[in-house]
Amino acid sequence: MEKYGSGHPPEEITSRANPRIKAAAALLKSNERKKTGRFLTEGARLCGDAVKSGVTVEEFFSTDGAKEKYSDVFALVSGAAKRTFIISPDVAEKLSDTRSTQEMFCVCPDSASLTESDIKADGFYVMTENVQNPDNLGAVVRSAEALGADGLIVFSGCDIRSPKALRASMGGLLRFPVIKTSDCASLIERAKKNGMKIFATVASGDAADISKADKSGGCICIIGNEGAGISAEMLALCTHKITIPMLGKAESLNAAAAAAITVWEFMKERGKKANVAN
């Protein structure tokens, strides 16, 4: 017998004008996510990841076809969701942000997994400043999570609950510790008082080669905007500037690529020191 988080079997929705559907579809827009404090996940993987990551699922929508095709995910999510609804394929199209939808969706409350007080003085964090492309933000998180960073600090830029960012992170934005701040200056000053190094990743020639930088102790590495890089105000707060040497003709790297190389270099060095200590 199927078990549902609400204790009741799913309700059926076939109208695109249904108030629940209209409210869920509105979450595809950033301003609605900000206003309601809720977001929408799409696809079997992200819906399953939401539950596995301990994210509350307020509403779960699935077609009969998706229920059959992704039966294990359906059982997992419907067992945790407060309300489950079986929707028509036409309704699924209204909720979808993709060209080929898997016809599964979750409405979840948005809550940051960490606060500034959770930053570990000996940890390694990636901070993004005004990264606008959700694909880039998702890729930064994917690399940071995979390589063992302690968390992501987000200052300005695109919404971390953007459907594109969630997909690009492969669910990482549902699992990985994220701190959102509107006052990066105060956060950085507190980090420096705790002995943390603040690294600005830049393309300028006066920065230190990333492979030779002192990566010991607590560190925050800042990845800047795709076109403008790190702002002058942010640069003034940093304790170190580092650069990734390039032999080709390109003047700079994509933000996601720069983040992946930066995290790799720092975690590789920290891994070596941890092995020596053990």
Task: Report on the architecture of this protein.
This protein is an alpha/beta fold and 278 residues long. The chain is built from twelve helices and twelve strands. The strands form two sheets. It has a seven-stranded parallel β-sheet with strand order 8-7-6-11-9-12-10. A five-stranded mixed β-sheet has the order 1-4-3-5-2, with helices on both faces. Helix 3 packs across helix 5 (71-80) and helix 7 (134-147) runs parallel beside helix 12 (255-277). It is elongated, with a radius of gyration of 21 Å. The N and C termini lie far apart (50 Å).
Order of neighbouring strands in the sheet with most strands: 8-7-6-11-9-12-10
Q: Can you summarize the main beta sheet?
A: 7 strands, parallel
Can you write the helix and strand succession as a string? EHHEHEHHEHEEHEHHEHEEEHEH
Overall 3D geometry? elongated
Terminal CA distance reads 50 Å
* Helical residue percent band: 25-40%
Count the helices. How many? 12
Low-confidence stretches: 274-278
| SS-based class | alpha/beta
Residue share in β-strands: 15-25%
Rg over alpha carbons: 21 Å
